[in-house]
Design goal:
The protein is mainly alpha-helical. It is 63% helix and 0% strand. The protein folds into two domains: 60 residues; 84 residues, Cytochrome c-like domain (Cytochrome Bc1 Complex, Chain D, domain 2, Orthogonal Bundle), CATH 1.10.760. Bound molecules: heme C.
């Protein structure tokens, strides 16, 4: 080989050398991992350990989800909140199922009744005194009570003012 050829071959052999060295390094890492695990255990314990480590995060997410607002039906809201006054007519609240008391109120229209229930009217407290109730829950509760006194209100068709 001439001197000229050697000069050209050294930079071109450097690249394969680096690749081979990198390969040996990777191989050494794999070998050392196998040596550290002579019983040849499978990766299940490792997976379990990872699962253990992420558990607190998962648990926190579940806790957050369980405190999120779960939409109640109109009937549930009436039973839990509105019936306190509307079942017995407390403070002259129109009684559930009393057509004479509900008739003139129903005549105002669904939208108006929902608005009054949300904002409150005279001695009727806003949202029945429970600010956590959503608009949909109020609309459902109004329909539930009014429909028991002859109305035919459908929360799905409510047009908000
Ligand atoms: C603290 C007692 C009380 C609670 C709780 C209560 N109401 Fe009332 N509500 C009243 C009273 C009193 C009136 C009559 C107010 C008036 O017309 O002077 C009334 C009237 C209404 C009316 C008729 C409004 C109108 O324009 O004529 C609607 C609708 C209504 N309530 C819905 C609800 C809903 C829905 C709930 C539950 C989320 C609820 N109320 C909870 C006391 C209550």
């Amino acid at each position: 080989m001439s001197k000229h050829d050697d000069e050209h071959s050294s930079p071109s052999t450097l690249q394969p050398m680096v690749i081979i060295f990198g390969f040996i390094l990777a191989l050494a890492t794999v070998v050392s991992l196998i040596m550290a695990n002579p019983a040849g255990e499978d990766t299940a314990p490792v997976v379990a350990k990872v699962a253990e480590n992420i558990k607190p995060v998962a648990a926190v997410e579940v806790a957050a989800a369980s405190t999120a607002h779960v939409e109640k039906s109109g009937e549930e809201v009436v039973k839990a909140v509105c019936s306190m006054c509307h079942a017995t007519g407390l403070m002259n609240a129109p009684k559930i199922g009393d057509k004479a008391q509900w008739g003139p109120r129903i005549a105002q229209g669904y939208e108006t009744l929902v608005q009054h229930a949300e904002a409150g009217i005279r001695t009727m407290p806003a949202r029945g005194g429970n600010p956590d109730l959503t608009d949909a829950e109020i609309a459902g509760a109004v329909a539930n009570m009014a429909n028991q006194a002859g109305a035919n209100f459908d929360p799905a068709k409510l047009v908000k003012k």
